[in-house]
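My current task is to audit a protein record that another person submitted. My question to you is simply how this chain folds and whether the tokens agree. This is what I was given:
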Amino acid sequence: MKLKNALALSLLALSACAAQAEEVGSVDTVFKIFGPDHKIVVEAFDDPDVKNVTCYISRAKTGGIKGGLGLAEDTADAAISCQQVGPVTLSDKIAQGKAEGEVVFKKRTSLVFKKLQVVRFFDQKRHALIYLSYSDRVVDGSPKNALSAVPIMPWRE
């Protein structure tokens, strides 16, 4: 029983590592008679390890009957823009260069095999955070990607 509890807590901790997004808005791109329309969704999430950096990601969302039931696979199209929204505080692991290529956001874009991810890199030489968004699939990922950089500068009120 203790092993099951430990396993459940470990899975919960792993799922809490990536940021959760909140929908900011959306626009319809294709009208569907049955089910929701195809759309572009804009979501915002805060970097869980960097205080006062917010990323906005836009992505395609498939509608129709399959989309409404959660069975459709969304395309790999996405864009990202990240901004400093206050005084930035880096976690110790980032400042020490121990968090290279860390996944900060993950969203399922198909029933099982495909997901959209955002990975953070820290460029110590240029003192900037780089956020890379891309879509991957278990067998065949997509080279489509987007990039956003946030210079770490003193915040001015």
In short: The longest helix spans residues 2-17.
